[in-house]
Amino acid sequence: MAEIKPRFEFRTFARGLGSVERRFRELAPVERIRESSEIYIMSRGNNENNTKLRDAKMDIKVFVREDRGLEQWNPRMKGEFPMETAVLRDDVFPALGVNHPEFKREVYSLEQYLSEVIEPHPDLQAVSVHKRRFGFTINDCIAEMGEIYINGAKIYTANLESVNVDAILNGMKMVGLDGYENINYLMAIKKVIGMEKGPIPW
C-alpha cells in the first residue's frame, strides 16, 4: 500500500473573516457543508496532542513538526466507547500528559468516562465544540471556512491543508490569510476557556 503522508495545515481563528471568505467564494465553489458536535478534552499537561470525541469515538492527533510556520499533524489513536480501562491508562492518559486517576471500572461508557474520569480531574476539562464548515479546494489544497461555537462562544475559522507546503503558502496569499496567525484548535480552545494564559489573539 502507498504510504499515507500526514498533511501540513494552516488554520486561524477570528471574530470575523469577511474578506477572506469573499476570496474563498470568488476562487472556488462550496463543495461540501458539514455540521458536527464534538467534545475536546483539554489538558494542562499537554499542548501537542489533540484529543476529541464525536459519536462515541475518540480521535487523538499528535503534532509532528513545523515547516515555514505550518503545522504537521498525524493520527496517534482512534478508539470507540465503551472503552477498556487498559486503553485509557496505557494510550489515552499518556497522550493527555497528566496522571490518570484510580479507575473503578474495567470498561467505561462515554458518559462514565466524562462524568467519572474527566470531570473530577483537576487538570482536564471537557469542552463542547459545535462546527458548521464549508469545504473548498483552493490551489489544490483542502480548504475550509467555518462557524465554530466553543462552549457557546462563536468564532470563525479558516484553514488550508496539503502535503505540499508551497501550495498552502501560495493559497494563503490568494485568499488573504498570509497576514493571520497560525492557531490550531488546541490553542484556540484553551484561550477561549482560559486554560492558556495571555491575550486571545483575535
Plain-language structure description:
This protein has 202 residues and is an alpha+beta fold. It has a single domain (8-193), classed as Beta Barrel (Hypothetical Protein Pfu-838710-001). Helix content is 25%, strand content 43%. It has 5 helices and 10 strands; from the N terminus they run βαβββββαβαβββαα. The protein has an 8-stranded antiparallel barrel with strand order 1-5-4-3-2-8-9-10, surrounded by 4 helices. The model has no long low-confidence stretch (mean pLDDT 96).
User: What's the average pLDDT?
Assistant: 96
- Beta content comes to 35-45%
* Largest sheet report: 8 strands, antiparallel, barrel
Instruction: Report the top-level CATH class.
Output: Mainly Beta
Number of helices: 5
* Number of discrete domains: 1
Structural class: alpha+beta
Got a strand count? 10
- Record the strand order, biggest sheet: 1-5-4-3-2-8-9-10
Q: Please tell me how large the radius of gyration is.
A: 18 Å
CATH superfamily descriptor:
Hypothetical Protein Pfu-838710-001
Shape: elongated
End-to-end CA span: 42 Å
Write the CATH architecture name: Beta Barrel
The helix-strand sequence is EHEEEEEHEHEEEHH
- Could you name the ranges where pLDDT drops below 50 across 5 or more consecutive residues? none
Give the helix proportion (percent range). 25-40%
CATH topology type: Hypothetical Protein Pfu-838710-001
